[in-house]
Amino acid sequence: MTVVVLTALAGCEPAAWQKQPLGKEKYLLTIDFRASQTLRYKFVSSREMTVGWDAPKNAFGSGRRTENKSSESVEMVVSYTPVEIDPYGLTTIRAACESVKVTRSRGPRQDVVESFAGRTFELAVGPTGRIEDYSQLDELIKEIGEKAFRTSTEHGRIKEPDMINDFVATQWFLWDAVSSIEEPAKGVAVGQSWRSKLSVPTPMVMRKARDVTYTLDEVRPGENGQLAVIDSSYRPADSAPRQWPIPYSGTFQVAGAFGFYGNYQVLDLQGQGQELFNIDAGRTEEYSQHYQMRLKASLLFPLPGASPRITIDQNITMRLLED
Questions:
Q1: Can you give the pTM of this predicted structure?
Q2: Which residue range is the domain that position 299 belongs to?
């Protein structure tokens, strides 16, 4: 049993019998990196935003509530290739952003996040999927973040709307469902739960996180191996880890629809998700995450009686593409 566990956790390709359940129907959920094998994934992060607020009351003591709706999404294809495999330590993965495209119902048609297309970065990853070195990704995020600002500073430093944090939400948290297992060598039983944190990408400048509870719902046969079905549920987190990347620095103003609001406060965040993890192949096949977040805000130019309320319906998906 010791040999089985060490071999699986080393990240090399184990034999089929080593992927059978451990004692008491427990399963090893580990990432397997295979030489010269490139995996391509399609990511989509989309949201619908509703901004509603009560107009000031008139002389008769009544006002009118108005709502504005908009949507935006970013679609990315990213490939991952192991360039250096250490069966007893860290594996170096080269990620290549093949394409990035943003669509909006209103607002700017171009988005600086599309500058990630054609760029590459490397990650140092352990056999459990935990990323141990984000340095190149962090530098790239900050580089693209600087491009979000207008070149002219005549009216101060102004940032255009962007979806950089949606890129962060998909790339910084790769394999989180399995890398957050506290004692991976002991395996996971059906019905077992564990916790983690994920980021909350938003159209405004915020640094928020969601607490995640993962649960191994079932293990079922798939076309290419056993599939671990991992359910997830979300709620507001008290704080975001300090080591998470921040694309921007300094003080600035925000352009676009959300440049008129400030002092955002999260009232609630609820949602669910599901991931299909191929136990035999040691890789994620697909996942989906959905949550609704409700916020209140204040107007930068106060209007007596106005009470802005914002609802964000967010979806994030990932799907393994065919070779």
A1: 0.88
A2: 2-320
CA–CA distance, 287 with 273 (Å, rounded to integer): 7
The 10s digit of each residue's pLDDT in 158-193 is 999 999 999 999 999 999 999 999 999 999 999 999
Residue 72: partners with Cβ closer than 8 Å, 6 or more residues away? 46, 47, 49, 102, 103, 104, 105, 107, 163, 203
- Of 304, 192, 165, nearest to 248 by C-alpha is 165
Domain count, the chain: 1
**Other CB atoms within 10 A of residue 226 CB:** 17
Tokens encoding 301: 């130019």
**Which DSSP string do the residues of 105-126 spell out, in sequence order?**
SSS-S--GGGGGTT-EEEEEE-
Token match 């990630």: residue? 116
> Is residue 306 within 8 Å of residue 298, measured between CB atoms?
no
* CA–CA separation, 12 and 34 (whole Å): 7
